[in-house]
Amino acid sequence: MTSPVESFADLGLGSALLKALADIGYETPSPIQAQCIPILLEGHDLIGMAQTGTGKTAAFALPLLEKIDVKISKPQALILTPTRELAIQVAEALQSYAHGLPGFHVLPIYGGQSYTIQLKQLSRGAHIIVGTPGRVMDHLERKTLNLDNLKTLVLDEADEMLRMGFIDDVEWILERTPAEHQTALFSATMPEQIRRVAQKYLVEPREIKIKSATATVAAIRQVYWQVSGMHKLDALTRILEVEEDFDAAIIFVRTKTATVELADKLSARGYAAAALNGDLNQQMRERVIEQLKSGALDIVIATDVAARGIDVPRVSHVVNYDIPYDTEAYVHRIGRTGRAGRNGNAILFVAPREVRMLRTIERATRQPIAPLTLPSRADVTNKRVAGFKEKVAEVLNAEGLDFFANIVAQISEEHNVGPEEVAAALCLMAQEGKPLQIAGEDPAPPRPMPADSRDARRPTSFGDRERKPRFEGGDRPRFEERGDKPRFEDKQRRPAPAGDMVRYRIDVGRDHGVQVKDIVGAIANEAGIESRFIGRIGLYDESSTVELPAGMPAEASNALKRTRVRGVPINLRPDEGRPDAGGERKFEGDRGGFKKKKFGDR
Ligand code: AMP
User: Fold this and answer.
1) By alpha-carbon position, which residue is closest to atom 12 of ligand 1?
2) How far does the centroid of ligand 1 lie from the alpha carbon of residue 466, in Å?
3) What is the pLDDT of residue 474?
4) Quick count: other Cβ atoms within 10 Å of Cβ 480?
5) Residue 599 in contact with residue 556, Cβ under 8 Å?
6) Distance (Å, whole) CA 27 – CA 8
7) Please, are residues 262 and 233 in contact by the beta-carbon 8 Å criterion?
8) 369 and 253 belong to one structural domain
């Protein structure tokens, strides 16, 4: 649909990478991947105009990995990113794609991290360096980073590097790379200065632009929900319950794995739901679609490719649970509803950093997409009560009520209560397992979404320090990117706490609009852990990691199990997930402490 290329195998990637991609659950290349990967594999220079959410990271990461010679423990590729979190994110992505390449090392280097640690890591040898320009420049100057073996240089989010005042550093680095190497430049926009850099340093670059063809999507009501303060799954079920004229839905996610996970979760919540993905053979796919048609299923969770061409008139809703890669995919997805002259509804979930894609879709479809207010608990309760009343009303007309009316009269007499109380007791029995009221609280209203994505695109993970200028009022902002020592606020917020630390995972992340300070505040308040003893915090999309002193008393961990951040239960548990690729994360020194007044001596 969005790309003629059906599989990563068609792009010339080797079996180790193909297996890793299958394990992660990527089904087909996104359009930018389909176009960029062959060009980069062939060794051409490339200009890719793509924003976050299009899959651009894998578009350059996969060809890099394909070309790495793991036997040579020297940097063969350098990726420059504007911020430290993007460096970490890209390094993590590389690590996950390189699952089948034993001995592969990627190293993120960025300002604010100790040189001693970085020097140690550099001397151990890394195949790919992902770094912020200032720190890469420092290492080149000190000759602690050697690019003699460099095969590829990637400039990621070049326009952001320009906006943040790093373009001179980038050029300085470009001047010092070996003459013979491939360069790929990715940028969401192409300001004049970036164009000039491309002309100067790239050799006959191929240019790839993800087209955003305009299209009409007239008869469909389109709304978006800004992901914030609540898990997407909880929001989804609230929305589906309250939507008028809901009949059936197709929910779009990005990976095969996600189709199965979401189908399981929705089934557990009582929905007739099933996954539809490329792992199903034709017969199984047809069966799922037949079941959706007949009403045996109400919800199908699909990837783009698997849902291609589905024509089921009763699909009243399409939910873009994960935002699509481009407008073409969006238009195709929402075209699954509003068929055969019926009304259609399209709901789009947009994380704060995906707002640029939302605006692109609006421009391409020439229609504004209205914000959707998440139904409140009261809305859901009212809807359930209305449904319950309707059911009772139906039964009131049924035959055979006399027998039960007699029983009600007996109960009423035996317990000396009115018939209303007996009826209330019966209602309580009837709703067992399907309560009329939902638990939990309403989330705080989302922070307003900016008209453009610049500010919202990628909220910082480790405090706001990357984006704060070091010198106020200079003609070119310099960002706190190079210094060895954290600034005062950072020391307050993210020190190296003393003692052994344990990493935990919590169920709130960027998608909930959560910032580092929210997590620190909640943990400090609820568990009585002074903020200086809270270690590193890593924000991911749907979850986060937080390092806390080892040996946490049960009282504190119980308090944290009940803690909420921006209204969402955090569900703190030891992190068994992916290893953090964010460099050295060890803390040295004596054991850090909990407030004694709360937990007593330990
Ligand atoms: P990016 O635009 O590189 O920031 O990627 C956005 C998101 O899309 C990330 O969560 C990726 O893991 C995911 N992603 C990238 N490529 C694919 C693919 N071919 N199939 C499914 N998900 C993908």
Assistant:
1) 55
2) 24
3) 30
4) 19
5) yes
6) 8
7) yes
8) yes
Together in a domain, 253 and 362: yes
Q: What is the spatial distance between Cα 128 and Cα 114, in angstroms, rounded to a whole number?
A: 19
CB-based pocket (< 6 A), ligand 1: 26, 29-30, 33, 52-58, 254-255
| Centroid of ligand 1 to alpha carbon of 16 (angstroms) | 18
The contacts of residue 508 (CB under 8 Å, 6+ apart) are 514, 518, 519, 543, 544, 565, 566, 568, 570
pTM for the complete prediction? 0.63
Report CA dihedral (470, 471, 474, 478) to the nearest 10 degrees: -20
Between the CA of 418 and the centroid of ligand 1 the distance, in Å, is 61
Count how many domains the chain has.
Answer: 4
CATH code: domain of residue 519? 3.30.70.330
- Residue 440 covered by a domain: no
Whether residue 185 sits in one domain with residue 158:
yes
pLDDT at 543 over 80: yes
Same domain, 383 and 487: no
Show the domain range for 422.
Answer: 378-429
The domain boundary residue, chosen from 391, 412, 429: 429
Check residue 555 and give its pLDDT. Answer: 72
Tens digits of residue pLDDT in 238-261: 999 999 889 999 999 999 999 999
Q: How far is CA 523 from CA 487, 563, 598, in A?
A: 22, 8, 14
Radius of gyration of the chain (CA): 27
Query: Looking at the domain assignment, is residue 215 inside a domain?
Result: no
Specify whether 256 is located in the same domain as 371: yes
